[in-house]
Amino acid sequence: MSSISFIGLGGMAHAVAARAVSGGHSVELIGRDQAKAKGLAYELGAGATAGTFGAVPAGDIVVLAVPYTSAVPVVAQYGDALAGKVIIDISNTFNADATALVTPDGTSGAQEIAKAAPASAHVVKAFNTVFGHVLVQERPLDVLFAGDDEGAKANVSAFIESLGLRPLDVGGLEMARWLEGIGPLLMGLARNGAGTFDIALNVDLPG
């Protein structure tokens, strides 16, 4: 199993990290609030540890679990500490009322993060199409992901599968904008047609 580092201590970090611990991975929690990181590590148990913000993450895979408004500055601050890492961007890029994306046409949050990351790091977009409270229910779910490096995508796919989830590759990192666009779509569905946020996007594959 892999060593997975999480930069960010919010609900999504907790949800993915909990499944990672259950999947047998070594988990490192990193945040500016060291006490909160230690508290989350203690809650998760199974040898989860608290790392130091700004230091080289222990994991080969780094889950960037911060709001998009903070993501690029955090990656830029880390700089070469992320060299050679697979960075999973789980952020959503919609506006305050979840009706539009804040990124300009022709790009995505994941692509902007990739620009800020070291050249040897590889960004993969994943998990943003699943609500955190649904993720912790341990239901079988589909996780759509996108990235440019085939090796990094293979690692992320294996990680997703180890969490009891089904990985579905949608293509290169240019597809991240459309994955990010699913955020407002799910929010609109939850508020209207579904009438509940206890929903998940699943793909029906014939056979």
UniProtKB/TrEMBL annotation:
Any one Pfam family here would be F420_oxidored
| InterPro entries referenced in this protein's UniProt entry, alphabetically | NAD(P)-bd_dom_sf, P5C_Rdtase_cat_N, STEAP_metalloreductase
Pyrroline-5-carboxylate reductase catalytic N-terminal domain location, by residue? 4-92
Output the Gene Ontology terms for molecular function: oxidoreductase activity
Keyword field: Oxidoreductase
SUPFAM superfamilies named among the record's database cross-references:
NAD(P)-binding Rossmann-fold domains
Q: What name does UniProt use for this protein?
A: NAD(P)-binding domain-containing protein
From which source organism is this entry?
Streptomyces rubrogriseus
